[in-house]
Design a protein that fits this description.
Length: 516
């Protein structure tokens, strides 16, 4: 089945209208430039500014535009256009609405609703956004951005030396005698401030939060310390870097202030990034029972029962996939893909090939996970397919996105489904190649059996008749030459005498006779 891409369904002649439901201030533009652009990239940032520039402030909407109008303004093709649009969608900067049916060609079929960015405080508090930003910028530049968007208070106003003396509303203004409320319809149309607090959320996660809580509580970390912000960071680190419950417990212990019994989310994030950067190709995943020596016996028993149930389910799943056509070796590879986080998995393969995982490759893997278009284990199968099966030297974002899109359209979710899908495509490709070879061989036999037609000019007899030289006249000797010259002179003299006689007769016939 041929690979299809999202931009292939885009009609450049389709009409789109851009609306702006939120205020976008100069401070928002600074946030977009310094905090969003490192994550979404330059093309997506330019697309956002292109949409914003087409909005008319009189009604906070643009005139109807064709898609190709925006492409020409960006100097971008369909592929760049749709990719940039999807990057804005995934991070919460753009919402798209499409009309299901339209009869008139001049109807607007798509609405682009431009969203204001989150404020800097929410970005640094958002576990996904802050993790991506730190991954892009590094700790030094990340700290510079923290300082840039932090208030520099010269004195501590909360100390007892300072007292607030601000005038109240009642001190200055007289309260109105009558209240004039606005209708809900008008209120809904007013341009408001973006009330979002999260740029994006990871909904699908295999992290067992209950087990993690029990591990933390057994290490004398109270349940109050596990706030919603801490939970969100746990999920983010688990999904992005592959840390399991035991890894997260160890990181949380290092990031906990024992005096206040609180987990420092920023420190937790930095520690996770350091561990991920120092990872080699080996897996950090350890069985839970090896890291729970200090836990209660009840927790250990529950983990043991859970592991037994997991093994039983795994055996049933193995039989299912063996029946589908996977080999035991392929099943072992799928289990390996489930055991490694994508970054460590890709790094291990690159090091075995004598290379190293570049920053752009790591960013491409992280973005695919953040977009939630593919499971981490399935992404590992894709990485193995690109680097080992196809013998590619490096992972490119465009190719990974095209493969992920193809798998998503063909309902490939689990790593075993991906391996089965690749196996079927490889078998189909081999069958098509064998068919072409048979056709080529059959055509070759037909050509050898055809009777050769010889041109006439190759026939020796024909060539002799056509190209035979005429027989030359016999040459005369030098002794006979004077006789021949004398004979020629006599013939010429006789010819001249005959000609003179004819001329005389003609003249006589022309002269009139005497007496006439």
């Amino acid at each position: 089945m041929p690979v299809t891409y999202p931009w292939q369904n885009l009609d450049p002649k389709g009409l789109v209208q851009i609306t702006q439901p939120h205020w976008i201030s100069d401070i928002d533009q600074q946030v977009l430039l310094h905090l969003y652009q490192p994550i979404i990239g330059g093309t997506a940032y330019a697309f956002y500014q292109t949409l914003y520039a087409n909005i008319q402030l009189s009604d906070f909407a643009s005139i109807p535009l064709h898609h190709f109008d925006l492409m020409e303004q960006m100097v971008a093709g369909k592929e760049q256009y749709v990719k940039a649009r999807r990057q804005l969608e995934a991070i919460g900067l753009l919402q798209i609405f499409e009309k299901s049916s339209h009869t008139n060609q001049d109807d607007v079929t798509t609405i682009y609703q431009l969203q204001a960015p989150l404020d800097s405080k929410h970005i640094f508090s958002d576990p996904i956004m802050s993790s991506l930003l730190m991954d892009r910028l590094g700790q030094d530049r990340y700290q510079l951005m923290l300082d840039k968007f932090s208030i520099k208070v010269p004195v501590d106003l909360k100390s007892g030396d300072w007292t607030e003396v601000t005038a109240t509303f009642q001190d200055v203004y007289r309260l109105p005698s009558q209240y004039y409320p606005i209708s809900d319809e008008i209120e809904d149309k007013l341009v408001a401030k973006n009330s979002q607090t999260m740029a994006t959320t990871i909904t699908s996660s295999t992290l067992n939060m209950n087990t993690l809580k029990e591990l933390l509580q057994s290490s004398f970390i109270s349940e109050k310390a596990i706030t919603d912000e801490v939970k969100e960071m746990f999920v983010s680190l688990h999904q992005l870097y592959g840390f399991d419950e035991v890894d997260l417990k160890e990181l949380a212990l290092s990031a906990t202030d024992l005096r206040t019994n609180k987990i420092d989310v920023r420190k937790l994030q930095r520690l996770a990034l350091d561990r991920s950067s120092n990872q080699t190709g080996t897996s950090n995943v350890q069985p839970a029972k090896q890291s729970t020596q200090g836990t209660s016996s009840g927790l250990t028993d529950r983990i043991t029962v859970s592991e037994a149930k997991d093994r039983q389910q795994a055996d049933q799943a193995d039989q299912h996939w063996l029946g589908k056509g996977l080999s035991q070796e392929e099943l072992s590879l799928s289990k390996l893909a489930r055991s490694y986080p994508p970054i460590a998995f890709a790094k291990s393969i690159k090091e075995q090939k004598g290379g190293y995982l570049t920053k752009s490759e790591g960013n491409a893997i992280t973005e695919l996970i953040q977009l939630e278009v593919i499971q981490p284990a399935t992404l590992n199968v894709m990485v193995q397919f690109c680097l080992i099966e196809l013998e590619q030297n490096r992972l490119t974002r465009s190719y990974l996105e095209s493969v992920a899109d193809d798998w998503r359209q063909n309902k490939v979710v689990e790593p075993e489904e991906a391996m089965l899908y690749l196996k079927q495509r490889k078998q189909k490709s081999a069958e098509n190649y064998e068919k072409r070879q048979k056709n080529r061989m059959a055509k070759g036999r037909y050509q050898t059996q055809k009777q050769s037609v010889k041109p006439k000019w190759l026939d020796p007899d024909s060539r002799q008749d056509k190209y035979q030289k005429p027989v030359a006249a016999p040459k005369t000797s030098d002794q006979d030459k004077p006789k021949q010259d004398m004979a020629v002179k006599q013939e010429n003299k006789a010819s001249l005498s005959a000609q003179e006689a004819e001329i005389q007769q003609l003249l006589q016939s022309l002269n009139p006779k005497e007496g006439e």
